[in-house]
Amino acid sequence: MADPSQASFWAQANALLRKNLTYQRKHIWTNVRLVLVPLFLCLLLLAIQLLVDAMMKQVSDKSDCGSKDVMPGGDCPIPNPPLLPPMLQIPESESRAVKAGFFSYRDFPDKSCRRTGTCPVTILVTGNNHSLGKALSGNMFGGSFAVNTSDFLTSLANNVLGSTLEADQNNYKDPGINSEIPIYNIQSQCSPNSTWPFSFGNIHTEVKCVQGLCLWRNSSAEVNDELFRGNWRANPERMTNEIAAAYDLLSTDNNNLDATIWYNSTYNDDSPSKVLVRVPRLINLVSNAYLKFLKGPGTRIVFEFVKEVPKQQTKKNLDIASMLGPLFFTWVVLLLFPVILTSLVYEKQERLRIIMKMHGLGDGPYWMISYAYFLALSMFYVTSLVIFGSAIGLHYFRLNDYSIQFVFYFIFINLQISLAFLASSIFSKVKTATVIAYIFVFGTGLLGSFLFERLVETPSFPEKGILALELYPGFSLYRGLYEFAQSASSVNGMKWEDLSDSGMYKLFCIMSVEWFVILIVVYYIDRVSSSGKSPLFFFKNPFKKSSSLPSPPSVQRQNSDNVLIDMEKTDVTQEREKVEQLKHEGRSTGHAIVCDNLKKVYPGRDGNPAKLAVKGLYLDVPSGECFGMLGPNGAGKTSFIHMMTGLLKPTSGTALVQGLDICKDMNKVYTSMGVCPQHDLLWETLTGREHLLFYGRLKNIKGSALTQAVEESLKSVSLFDGGVADKPAGKYSGGMKRRLSVAISLIGNPKVVYMDEPSTGLDPASRKNLWTVIQRAKQNTAIILTTHSMEEAEFLCDRLGIFVDGGLQCIGNPKELKGRYGGSYVFTMTTSIEYEEKVERMLQRISPNAKKVYHLAGTQKFEIPKEEVMISDVFLMVEKAKTKFTVFAWGLADTTLEDVFFKVATTAQVFNSLS
């Protein structure tokens, strides 16, 4: 019925894809809710935008742009910008330069001028010609304040005006012309408290006189030093001594004006919108002084006004999506990370990938389909976000080039999926992974908004520092969304030619490199973990000797019960010789399972010695045989099964399954293997039929043969009738799940099946039915079965092996083992307490070597060697006892398989501990 050939790469990929699509269909409403989250946020941003627009419109409607009382600026149209007098930027009176210990020159005014408010405005001058500098310094400032109202601006230009207020972002309305703040007229000499009234438009203030002081310095280095020492930003702990400006006349002479100007631009640091500085009047001052030097005091360059460019009415608008987009959309895109991570960790926690691998799913199809599946889901999610955001009119999506957005989201989504695969190797519990993932999501958004964005907007923060922070994928996402927001705030949005200016080009490179590096790391970790090695195995000391455990000697030993146990294990030796003969004759390929000196040693850790889990196992299991492995917990049965199913690599030796070496051809072995694990590894939302369809496809069963195989499997384990086959496995009882696991292990008639306690949790009727299924299945299959039920072992197994401390102690069918190790009867009698000694004496007469093994409240149990007594003697003894005292109950039983197991296991453990 099944195709014995190995399922191809694409057949495995098809099986996993169908399973994932079925699983996705079961969670359709979860996905709908996931997609609705970004759509809801887009609608929320739109609602906020509409509300803000309405409020801004109300403010705009209330403003009267035609009123004469409204000063130019703001949002009103300005077809004819006002003509404003040019002004100097001067320090506040209490901040002007005075004598101080940190100034090397002593020509500054005394600090007493601060009490009277008469400190001058100081300008430093240097150059190659001292006399020329002195002449120009005398021509800098004018005389008393005088204004001709008939020619206001021209006459005002003859006065050097200054302001202590910094400039604004435009010249439509100069903050220096304000009715509350006086204007200063800078003169060579001032009379005390000289003030004049001043009117400009609807502004009525006063002009105060302030002295302009020009001081000579011998070099530009001295000027630099005094400007720096007097600046409050350089010396916040000292009294501020600000110098208004400075000139370096360089090589100026009668034929050439060559000057460098120092001016204070630090007023703009507190507010990025303050972009203008008061430099034009400084240029005019030195130019006028030079012209007066050449042509006399009656010649001047008149600087009448400064004027801004005309502008249309500005509509008040705040792009809320661009303002909040980096934070909101960081959360939206990163919301996929917990979804992907929890899905991967769930498969790890429930060991679903392991069981898929055991049934033939290769690593290649798993990685390809899982990655493509998450990529398709993520792209659909992000595409829905962009389309919906564009449809409702958010400039954040509409203005930026869609191809740039696609490339950005595509690269980051791949990076995010790779990061989720990497993180899944760290976590083993879904709850832990979920909590950490959501902390990552919301923490990244908040850190990006309140820390990373501030650093990006800080000019002094080094670009290398920004690039280093962008190595964190969350900040890479935030930076890209931030750049989209900044571009959407402009008119044109982001285009391809803007990538280098915005930093997106470097961002693409960083994310792409991280994507591929993380994929390589994930592949390495997966390869290492599948081999059972530590990911940092290459850091171990190469000179450290690995510890090994000596093999116990093979001798005969007498136990404490004086029962001679054959520790030579003749049957085990015969099994080894049989395997060696098969290997020598080259006939091992015709046998289902052949184990050749299979060993597994777990290296010692934390100072503990190495653990020898499997000690040179030799075993031959032909097709059609069910081999039962019995043994106490920790005997090594699980390690043996894990090696046979490819979960562990043997330390030495090997095993052949259908002639294929488990160390070299495990992927081919999987195609002919079935596994029923100890714990049911099932998808809660998939039905029994869907489970069997998936695993049937992995066994390369197709078409009608697949449908038939699934129905037969369901019927065999009584899961076909009553709609049970189409119920989610999560609603199955424990016994139904167990039967489904057995059906999965047998789907496709595998040549080799490993069953780990298959009937655990079943009621007697279901257990009996399951045994029938296994008996029927073993006709063409080799089955290795582990169990703690001696009844199950005796019913199903053709041969048994008792496994203790990593080695087989005996091999044989149940009857042989009971005959070999069960050399006694078990006699039980219950009487009154006062007759216990009489019962023991009567039994000693017919069997001197009888041994009491149990005693409680008149009930005694004895072991009687078979060679010492006949059953008729026991019956006669009981009849005689009944004539002397009351016998409440008695019984005589042959040795059970459980007795054999107990005796062999305990004897072997005692022997191993002594040797």
TrEMBL record:
GO molecular function, one term: ATP binding
A UniProt-annotated Pfam family: ABCA12_C
Principal subcellular localization: membrane
Keywords, alphabetical: ATP-binding, Membrane, Nucleotide-binding, Transmembrane, Transmembrane helix
GO CC terms, sorted: membrane
Membrane topology qualifier: Multi-pass membrane protein
Transmembrane segments: 32-52, 320-346, 366-394, 406-427, 433-452, 504-525
Residue ranges of domain ABC transporter in the record: 593-830
Subcellular location: Membrane
InterPro entries in alphabetical order: AAA+_ATPase (IPR003593), ABC2_TM (IPR013525), ABC_transporter-like_ATP-bd (IPR003439), ABC_transporter-like_CS (IPR017871), ABCA (IPR026082), P-loop_NTPase (IPR027417)
PANTHER family noted in UniProt: ABC TRANSPORTER A FAMILY MEMBER 10 (PTHR19229:SF237), ATP-BINDING CASSETTE TRANSPORTER SUBFAMILY A ABCA (PTHR19229)
Similarity remark: Belongs to the ABC transporter superfamily. ABCA family. CPR flippase (TC 3.A.1.211) subfamily.
Protein's name according to its UniProt entry: ABC transporter A family member 10
